Amino acid sequence: MIKKPFTIQFPENPVSGFSWNIATSNGLQITRDRFIPEDEEKTGSGGYRVWDIQVTTQQSKDNRYIPEG
What we know:
By secondary structure, the protein is mostly beta strands. It has strands at residues 6-12, 19-23, 28-37, 47-55, 64-68. Strands 1-4-3 form a three-stranded antiparallel β-sheet, with no helix packed on it. Strands 2-5 form a two-stranded antiparallel sheet.
């Protein structure tokens, strides 16, 4: 079994109410959840929601990406 961590990112703009959440299945663990702005100097600009995920067992098969807002 490969337990190599991986990263997922989606465009997001929390200021306008557009954001994401993630629900992982058994066998996956979110090790980091962060927002990376595209332009830190512009208030209200969008960016990316980024998750670092670690595989913990071979039974991983169902992930859901849920838009919020």
